[in-house]
Amino acid sequence: MGKSISVTDLKAWYGDSLTLKGITMELDANRATAIIGPSGCGKSTFIRCLNRLHETSPGAKMEGSIRLEDEDLYTMDPVDVRRVVGMVFQKANPFPTMSIYDNIAIGLRLGGIRNRTELTDRVEKSLKMAALWDEVADRIHTPATALSGGQQQRLCIARALAVEPEVLLMDEPASALDPVSTLRVEELVEQLKESYTIVIVTHNMQQAARVADKTAFFLNGELIEFGETTGIFTNPVDKRTEDYITGRFG
Amino acid sequence: MQQRHNFDLALRELKLKLLKMGGDVQEAIRKSIQALQGLDAEVAQSVVDGDKAINREEHEIEDLCIRLIATQQPVATDLRKIVSGLQIATDLERMGDNAVDIAKSVIRLRGQKLVKPLVDIPRMAGIVDQMISDALNAYVESSLELAEKLAPEDDEVDHIYRKMVEELFKIATNNPSVAEQTMSLAFIGRHLERIGDHATNIGEGVIYIISGERSDLN
After folding, report:
1. Is a pLDDT exceeding 70 seen at residue A250?
2. How do residues B150-162 score in pLDDT, each as one tens digit?
3. Is B11 buried (19+), middle (13-18) or exposed (0-12) by CB count in 10 A?
4. Which run of H or of E encompasses A65?
5. Would you call B83 an interface residue with chain A, using a CB distance cutoff of 8 Å?
6. What is the mean pLDDT of residues A174-192?
7. PhoU domain spans which residues (chain B) (predicted)?
8. What is the pLDDT of residue B2?
9. How far apart are CA A156 and CA A53, in angstroms?
10. Which end of chain B, C or N, has fewer beta carbons within 10 A?
11. Beta bridge mates, A26
């Protein structure tokens, strides 16, 4: 099952530039939350803070608290954080020299799993959860780079799921995909939230409206509005949200 | 910065089409009452004939709204304006049908002498005419105040209608030979009362556009 995330007064900097100006929000367990906002609003920085990727950028720092239920993410080992808070990026990034199988198995091997049967079972389970198994079952030892873009992205989702995270972060996961692959990823989000907490950053407002239970609108590093997706897209409270989602600025 | 110029133009077009249709419906209702007052079958027939144009206006508004939903993916206020626009067009079309029903009653009353002077029906017609104006102005001006004014106006129409029906029943009881005519007049009252209800629906649509809240003015 997924876990909820509590973010309190989160500030993030790149050098002297304050990118997030004190974000406080609760991300519900087993629900999909979309983060929307114009370029540079801090939405990617926000999710990079959630799995401690932000601090790996040169000159980057953060303040505030992020808790995964009762655990403080910033007192945990960052490697453990990235296991429980998985991430999928905008561009599918399978390990180019590895097979489909090894792309998934490598994270498990690094986690100490050596038993071949267990590895194979976990690889199969992950591919099934990412709705890719039926398409690759007969060629899992072929190079991952031979897959289509949409399949590669689902492989990356399978790779993130293999280590059994509690939370799955998705940074523009479908922006490089064709409409059919996009819909497959969106359907997958719908299924995955039964087992995981999903946070999805997207520029595609219709995608947020389709997949997310809750939507947060960021602007200039601030959380402007956060609520049920239906409310945000039919009757937003803040004029800036209205102007952004109706395309009047941004 | 204005970034959806064509979309905004299309929304303005929607507003103008609804206003034009509203004006045409008001005119049809006025003519149907004018026909009743003069028992003028020719004017009544022109209301019946004019309904096709009103129906066509409704279809044009529907087509525009469907096109905007399909091509512009409207959300928030834009979406509420378009969805309410569809509903307003439907209510206006129904009002047009009510005007036709009144006109058809007038055609059936041709050659008869009215059993009583017309007092309540013209009064109701005056109020519902004002209600349609208020509903359309509420829409144009995004005025909650005008939309909410429709509730007491509708109450008054309902009150006159009930009183009028009671009176017509009494007349019919005392003189069964005029029962058919009193029934026709009661139906005309009923059509005006329904027009009032459609005007309150428009008011509710306007309140939804402005606030996103559902309301009941009826």
Report:
1. no
2. 999 999 999 999 9
3. buried
4. strand A60-68
5. no
6. 88
7. 18-106, 121-204
8. 54
9. 17
10. N
11. A6
For chain A, report the end-to-end CA distance as a whole number of angstroms: 36
Domain extent at residue A59 = 5-95+167-245
How many separate domains does chain A show?
Answer: 1
Dihedral sign from CA coordinates of A52, A55, A57, A60: positive
- Torsions phi, psi for B77 (to 5 deg): -60, -40
Task: Looking at the complex, report in whole angstroms how far the Cα of residue A211 sits from the nearest Cα belonging to chain B.
Answer: 16
- In chain B, whose CA is at the least distance from the CA of A231? B76
Chain centroid offset of residue A170 CA: 2
Distance from A145 to chain B by nearest Cα, in Å? 35
Cβ–Cβ gap B3/A248 under 8 Å: yes
Q: pTM for this one?
A: 0.83
| A179 shares contact with chain B (CB less than 8 Å) | no
The ipTM value here is: 0.74
User: B5-211: which CATH number, 1.10.3720.10, 3.40.50.720, 1.20.58.220, 3.30.160.20?
Assistant: 1.20.58.220
**Cα–Cα distance between A240 and B22 in angstroms, integer?**
33
Most B-contacting residue of A207, A225, A234, A239 (CB-CB within 10 A), to test interface: A234
Residue of A230, A232, A235 to mutate for B, most B C-beta atoms under 10 A: A235
CB contact under 8 A, A236 and B76: yes
- Work out the mean pLDDT of chain B and round it to a whole number: 95
Contacts with B216 (C-beta within 8 Å, 6 or more apart), sequence order:
B204
User: What are the tens digits of pLDDT across the range B38-94?
Assistant: 999 999 999 999 999 999 999 999 999 999 999 899 999 999 999 999 999 999 999
Structure tokens at A139: 């060629």
CATH of the domain at A237: 3.40.50.300
Residue A75 lies in a domain: yes
Judged against a pLDDT cut of 50, whether residue B1 lies above it is answered with: no
| b (16+ CB within 10 A) / e for A87-115 | bbbbebebeeeebbbbbbbebbeeeeeee
| Distance (Å, whole) CA A114 – CA A99 | 18
In whole angstroms, what is the distance from residue A42 CA to residue A45 CA? 5
Q: How far is B212 from chain A (nearest CA, A)?
A: 6
Assigned domain for A41 exists: yes
Best mutation target, B7, B69, B71, B75, to test chain A (most A CBs within 10 A): B75
